[in-house]
């Protein structure tokens, strides 16, 4: 297990009376793709701006490799802001070279890096165009190149996938996975939960400024209601279902002899098996993991109903929370 590279420790930020980020604690490990998800206004952008030092927290701190993040460390981070931040009238290649030099690269190194990323992100045909003449999706590819050009040690990306076509999504995903594989901790926010589930090692779910859950999707699903898929070919396909009336068991869907069931916490799956066997042989009896989209809905709804409950590995833990979260 890689050690925490970037730690967000009990960070708070208010705008006037509104608490935008409240006691936010999590870490991102070297080589990890960390998905940062949550409803609109939950506090993701504010947290990422604090990581980058664009905003100062009211309390708490951000650490890089165990030390409070300072200007020198931040200079080595790559950032893709939500509002994007390219100069519209600058030419693509020129812009990337300029940003490389701004981050301390030599002219030759900045030129080589700009050329490399232009090619990797498939915007070569626009290298001499002004940024403003590119489509929004292509501007976004350039924006990613801008975050990468100085070979950052950590990547913080605010909704990098929004508005991209499917091919561009694949390019973006591959580049982020490559960077992570090279040891770079990568955090990105997104509302595309299926994508987050596919690409991220761990996920942090934010609700009302707090981290309400954090871990691998498998870990997050441990706190959710269990699902079973049961195929009982001998059971009648119409009429009262064989699982109806079992304590804590809900029939979610029914397709021929196959049934999907939801089990409340503490419900006994053996009683389900007995009931299924009572109809004849059982062809399938497997636990299913709900997709992140459903886990997210359950966790956010539960959090809103219960208040400050924190679930999952590392969520809300104290400084240096490196607990749990295997891949
Ligand atoms: N400059 C600001 N002044 C006042 N309130 C702000 C400011 N920036 C953010 N907020 C408030 O802070 C809260 C968190 O906003 P933030 O942009 O961090 O959310 P988010 O999770 O990134 O949302 P989204 O998914 O919509 O981008 C919101 O209630 C927002 O209205």
Structural commentary:
This protein has 327 residues and is of the alpha/beta class. The chain folds into two domains: 4-221 and 295-306, Rossmann fold, CATH 3.40.50; 225-288. It is built from ten helices and 14 strands. The protein has helices at 44-52, 71-75, 92-102, 107-120, 136-148, 166-181, 193-199, 217-222, 269-277, 292-306; strands at residues 4-15, 18-29, 33-38, 59-64, 67-68, 77-80, 154-157, 186-189, 202-207, 210-215, 226-231, 249-255, 258-263, 284-288. Strands 6-7-8-3-9-10 form a six-stranded mixed beta sheet, with helices on both faces. Strands 2-1-4-5 form a four-stranded antiparallel beta sheet, with helices on one face. A hairpin with a 2-residue loop joins β9 (202-207) and β10. α3 (92-102) crosses α4 (107-120).
List keywords for this structure.
four-stranded antiparallel β-sheet; AAA+_ATPase; DrrA1/2-like_C; P-loop_NTPase; binds adenosine-5'-triphosphate; 327 residues; 10 helices; six-stranded mixed β-sheet; ATP-binding; Rossmann fold; 14 strands; alpha/beta
The largest beta-sheet arranges its strands as 6-7-8-3-9-10
Q: What class would the helix/strand composition place it in? A: alpha/beta
Uncertain regions: pLDDT < 50 for 5+ in a row?
313-327
**CATH homologous superfamily label of the largest domain:** P-loop containing nucleotide triphosphate hydrolases
Overall CATH class of the largest domain: Alpha Beta
Shape type: elongated
Keywords: ATP-binding, Nucleotide-binding, Transport
InterPro entries: AAA+_ATPase, ABC_transporter-like_ATP-bd, ABC_transporter-like_CS, DrrA1/2-like_C, P-loop_NTPase
GO molecular function: ATP binding
Family: Belongs to the ABC transporter superfamily.
């Amino acid at each position: 297990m890689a050690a925490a590279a970037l730690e967000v420790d009990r960070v708070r930020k208010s705008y006037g009376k509104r608490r935008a980020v409240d006691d936010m604690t999590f870490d991102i490990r070297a080589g990890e793709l960390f998905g940062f998800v949550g409803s609109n206004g939950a506090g993701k952008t504010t947290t990422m701006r604090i990581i980058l030092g664009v905003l100062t927290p009211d309390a708490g701190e951000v650490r890089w490799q165990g030390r409070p993040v300072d200007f020198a460390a931040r200079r080595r981070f790559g950032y893709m802001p939500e509002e994007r931040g390219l100069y519209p009238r600058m030419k693509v290649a020129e812009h990337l070279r300029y940003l490389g030099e701004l981050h301390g690269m030599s002219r030759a190194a900045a030129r080589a890096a700009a050329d490399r990323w232009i090619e990797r992100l498939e915007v070569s045909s626009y290298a001499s165009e002004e940024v403003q003449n590119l489509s929004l999706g292509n501007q976004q590819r350039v924006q990613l190149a801008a975050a990468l050009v100085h070979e950052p040690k950590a990547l913080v990306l605010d909704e990098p996938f929004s508005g991209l076509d499917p091919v561009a999504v694949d390019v973006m995903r591959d580049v982020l996975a490559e960077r992570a594989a090279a040891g770079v901790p990568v955090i990105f926010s997104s509302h595309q939960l299926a994508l987050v589930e596919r690409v991220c090692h761990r996920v942090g779910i934010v609700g009302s400024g707090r981290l309400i859950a954090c871990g691998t999707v498998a870990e997050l699903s441990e706190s959710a209601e269990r699902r079973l898929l049961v195929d009982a070919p001998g059971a009648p396909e119409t009429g009262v279902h064989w699982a109806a009336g079992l304590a804590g068991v809900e029939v979610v869907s029914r397709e021929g002899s196959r049934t999907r069931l939801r089990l409340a916490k503490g419900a006994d799956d053996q009683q389900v098996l007995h009931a299924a066997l009572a109809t004849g042989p059982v062809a399938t009896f497997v636990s299913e993991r709900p997709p992140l989209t459903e886990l997210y809905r359950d966790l956010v709804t539960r959090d809103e109903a219960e208040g400050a409950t924190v679930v999952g590995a590392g969520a809300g833990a104290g400084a240096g929370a490196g607990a749990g979260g295997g891949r």
